[in-house]
Design brief:
- By secondary structure, the chain is mainly β.
Length: about 160
């Protein structure tokens, strides 16, 4: 296969909560940095149009393809928020269907006319939200499993 057809990938260690399987530990494949383009963020990988993601599972060690609709959330080591100038931050609490509550910051580039939290949550092409928790963990949640989002005034 010609090298120009190969998309270089990196492994990012994650903890996934899969419905109905439960917690799964392994590494997701994300696009490697190329030129000035940085390594792909986990949230961007999950928000691509593909139905399945590739995970190298740890126990048992095996390659698995998980359907994105079955992924409740993905935890990873802290990923710094993107630093674009048009970045909007929203402090909030998310009530999840599994009974958990996540509190942190949503941060994504947004045009000024679409910068409200409501607009952010209703982006149709984005199935997953990236939440930066106060303890330094980054969590990517499937919007299907979010019961509610409550703005907090910790800003």
């Amino acid at each position: 296969m010609p090298d120009e057809l190969i998309v270089p990938k990196n492994l990012r260690r994650v903890r996934l909560w899969i419905h109905p399987e439960g917690r799964v530990v392994g590494s997701l494949y994300v696009r490697a940095a190329r030129g000035e383009e940085p390594e792909q963020r986990i949230v961007d990988s999950l928000n691509e149009e593909q139905s399945f993601v590739v995970l190298m599972r740890e126990a048992p060690e095996e390659l698995r393809f998980y359907h994105q609709a079955s992924i409740l959330r993905v935890e990873s080591e802290a990923e710094p928020p993107p630093t674009e100038e048009d970045m909007i931050h929203h402090r909030c609490q998310l009530g999840m269907m599994d009974g958990n509550f996540l509190e942190g910051t949503l941060a994504r580039p947004s045009p000024p006319d679409r910068s409200r939290l409501f607009d952010f949550l209703n982006r149709e092409k984005e199935r997953f939200l990236e939440v930066f928790l106060d303890d330094g963990t980054t969590v990517v949640v499937n919007k299907t499993y979010v019961i509610y989002v409550r703005p907090t005034d910790d800003d």
